[in-house]
Amino acid sequence: MQQDTTGRPFLLAAYAFAVAMCGTTLPTPLYQYYQRQLGFSPLMVTVIFAVYAVGVIVALLLLGQVSDSVGRRPVLLAGLALSALSAACFLFERGLPELFAGRVLSGLSAGLFTGTATAAVVELAPRRWAGAATLAATAANMGGLGSGPLLAGLLAQYAPDPLRQVFLVDLALVAVAVVGVLLIPETVRDRGRGAALRPRRLHVPPSVRPAFVPAAMAGFAGFATMGLFTSVAPSFLSDVVGIGAPAVSGTVVFVLFAASTAGQMLMGRVGVHRALPWGCVVLVAGMAVIFASLLAASLPLMVAGAVVAGTGQGLSFRAGVTAVGAYSPPERRAEVTSALFVVLYVAISIPVVGVGAMAVALGLRLSGLVFTACVALLAATTAVLLALRPVESGAGAG
């Protein structure tokens, strides 16, 4: 394949990545509308959110490597088709079945896109941008995730028909992304080998575990925080802080993802082996600020907590993925990285369902306080573990 020097295919792939990820978080500021319309509890909000992670994990396990066999473009187009079907479920929603179907389809789309689009963006980057290609893929991923709540919140507040308008806009964005993917060249040369739909192995070799365990612990804490913000943060703002404006809740979630992107960019300056423990320390500080925001019912503290926690999550997440990749033998790297992402997507779902269950019995404020304390404890434990047994560079990578 002759490489395009204009950068257009690279930008089109990054745009498609951002649009697909944007679709996965669009419902965040809208859950309060569905809750009022259908009369369900905070627990049901978290369950609706959590089935998204089920879709992601299924796609990662069954289809994580399929683009290596059939090519990047067909998988990207399939992911966009699933994203459009998810938007259609929300657009024509009549009750809980459509909400659940929309979230599962959204998860399948994200599971297909995460690995495939990252590979496509890196492979399509012109040589002059090669050093920043991985970071560009990360920015497209996190930027899309953060843009979803912001876009939905603004449209819900200022456009008519808040539960329909945003998904019409999303379908238009997806349509443009489909055209963009059709215009990019295929980067996989040896196609047509076939890809069996069987679960991927999730074995982590003993030599990789010194890096995998702290990376998984730190990632679990960080992704649980992201799950909390993208599921019940609007409820916290409405019921605890007293601010129900969807534009505000969407902006708060956007701030978290923007801070995560900044933290991932910062890791290059800090270095992998300092970024992993220090990211955990920053995440603990962010949890402390969020804890204080819930006690004081303070929006400024909630925003500050999102900034600090997001930065810590970004630092530790990128450092963890990098360390695990360095430790893993090349022939096992995809397998081990998949195992790490399965842990992370379990983290994004199970804890927030626990928050929803606690909220029914104890109220949102107390359940949020318990959650932030638990995440802070896990992140602090990981930091102490890393201080006692640092991850050595290069070990086990052979």
From TrEMBL:
Subcellular location: Cell membrane
Membrane topology category: Multi-pass membrane protein
Database matches in SUPFAM superfamilies: MFS general substrate transporter
Major facilitator superfamily (MFS) profile domain ranges (all copies): 9-391
Tagged with keyword Transmembrane: yes
Residues spanning the membrane: 12-34, 40-63, 75-93, 99-122, 134-159, 165-184, 211-237, 243-263, 275-297, 303-327, 339-362, 368-388
Protein name, UniProt field: MFS transporter
Species the sequence originates in: Streptomyces mashuensis
